[in-house]
Amino acid sequence: MENIPGNNLPRVKVANQAAIRRMIYEYGPITRAGIAEKLSLTLPTITTNISSMIASGLLEELPAKEGSSLSLGRRANAVNIVSNAGYFIGVEFRRLFRHLCITNYRGEVIYSEVDNTDYTDYNECMDHTCRMIHKVLHSDLVPEEKLCGIGICLPGIIDPVSGTLGAHRQNNWYNKDILSDVKRLTGFKGPISVENNTLARAYGAQLFRKDLLRDIPSFTYMYIFSGIACPLILNNSTMLSNPVGPGEVGYMIIDPSKPRNELGSMGTLHSLAGERSIADQCFEALKEGNAPVLETICGGIVRPTFPQIVQAQKDGDPFCDELLLSAAYYLGIAVANVDNLIRPHSMLIEGRIFSNPKNKEHFLNTIRENQFRLSDTKTQLIFIDYDDFSGAKGAAAVAIRANLEQYIK
Length: 409
What we know:
The chain is α+β, with helices and mostly antiparallel strands. The protein has helices at about 10-25, 30-40, 45-55, 120-135, 180-185, 195-210, 210-215, 270-275, 275-285, 290-300, 305-315, 320-340, 355-370, 390-405; strands at about 30, 60-65, 75-80, 85-95, 100-105, 110-115, 145-155, 155-160, 165-170, 175, 190-195, 220-225, 230, 230-235, 260, 265, 345-350, 380-385. Among the domains are: about 10-80, Orthogonal Bundle (Arc Repressor Mutant, subunit A); about 85-205 and about 390-405, ATPase, nucleotide binding domain (Nucleotidyltransferase, domain 5, 2-Layer Sandwich). Helix content is about 40%, strand content about 20%. The relative contact order is 0.12.
């Protein structure tokens, strides 16, 4: 990277520093010699860049751990990111809710806020989202000079380069300029990043959950909510990897015999296992008197929440039990198909349906019955506890990824 033919010096300097920052973020605390070894850069290049970043307050120097293979002979000092050197606003922006948080470089949340109002109109939803951001920008929660970026995530087909939403079919939102709208409505002059909400969660795991993903070459992140997505991420220390495909498994046809509606086949995974579809079916069952336990939990014939549906299943409601077990079965078929096709090293799974162990067991059994794997290999399935703010924290991770590419003079 240090001597790339055809590159001018300023461009090489920027690329070198970005690579060093990413390496320190990934492996810190790490010695200068360790960075040089991993990046094949000279020690003077490493030292010059690290000195400028220490002077800026971004990095700190620490004693290297004893016995470190990267600090042979006289123990050298290691360097690491200063966690509170910068802060990031992360927002998950959806029709049903808006979750906002502020994190530091390491994803530690120092503030969070939620708005659960249902806004079907895009402009109204965006306006209230930006009011939340504007309020935080003009608060004293973090020093203004340390606010390094905003990350926005939402469902749908996102172009992260232009910051636009191409389509969110369930909401009927098309061709929305998210980046321009957030800039205009918040007045924020710093960097703003926009990404798909499931991809943001995957990036959040990549940056903040090293315990799960250290040395894992590739992983998928299945997120089950109103829709279902499962992007594949190539996991490497550059943190520059793009997803392999959009990961929209929710549009996978599971049962082609189902009828069609305005959104396509009713046999899609969305229709058979998505929370919105399950809630719709339960509401109809309540109207027809077919879900008595759920009706008691809801206190009447009202549209149930998904946690209420899971609780009704736990309490013995036969309709909810059959419906959720069916959804777990379809999800298991989808995961088996993904594994048979691309064979990721790990699969991270987040969904409220698995708060009932019965559904998790049925899901896992379905996968085992439908996987094509050698007998001596196993899928590493990692269940992520459902977190209301996993999308907002993921959005902050998207902003951090962008920040690590910025040049520090």
